[in-house]
# Entry
Amino acid sequence: MKKMVLLLVFAVTVSCLWTTAYGEGASKEPVRMAYLQGDIHHLPLWVALDKGFFNKRGVKVTIAGIFKAGPELMSGFSAGALDMGYVGGAPTVTAVANGTAKVRIVAQVNAEGSAIVVGKNSDIASIRDLAKAQIAIPGYSTVQDFLLQKALGKYGIDLKTVRIIVLKPAEMIGALRTGQIDAFIAWEPYPAKAVNMGVGRILIGSGEIWKDHPCCVLAADSVFAEKNREKMEKVLDAHTEAIEFIHKNPDEAMEIAAKYTGMDQGTIRDAMRNVKYTHNINIEGLKEYAEFLRDLGYIKISDPDAFIKNLVH
# Structure
């Protein structure tokens, strides 16, 4: 009898542990989310948090990291500290291709939304004038790195003549003001901020370099995506609702962006004009990213089509 009681207790204990790890208890665990600091591309996340779109679907989202650049955010996935994150498509492709992170792209966040900025009184009048210039990018293998090289290549500029350095977007405006760099390319709202501070002017928007190009995506840890499909679908529903809210309520969305970035509403308003929010994944655009990164030697993949097919959830 005693043995039967012990077995029963053991069975109940195992059942409770299983439920906590994989069943009802697991469904109550918050989604560990991350995004990039001051990046208004990630406004859909801030709107969803501010308007309670996650909560109304019964999903708790906790911010587990605010990073300064995409490669740093991908390291959060590598460390097992994140479930989902708003991040650039290029660093996502790079990390997965190089085996440093196991994630899936589950939605797009925006198209376009970056710009090349030069000094307000600079003699640089066109892309051709960037030959021999010193230009800051937020990181190698980022979307901005891709766009800059695409723009320079379009005008036949030898990349070897251009001096490219890596700076965090928050550091770029000061470097431009003091003449340490001739130009920079960054995501919004940093281009708009440079203009509103009287430091720079927009040389060309990323939409002019490559119309409707994909930029940021919503990525999910591969294991999390497989084991928490219902929860992830609810996050995606909230993400889609947030994008619809931005389109229908731009002024209120602007106020939310100002709150999360600490920037003035005038800067945010100008920045939002340069961003196209969408949840629809641009498969062909991601494939072009992958081919570009492969050709530069950033990643090694034999079949971009198959790679992107496996990457997108």
Summary: DSSP finds 15 helices and twelve strands in the chain.
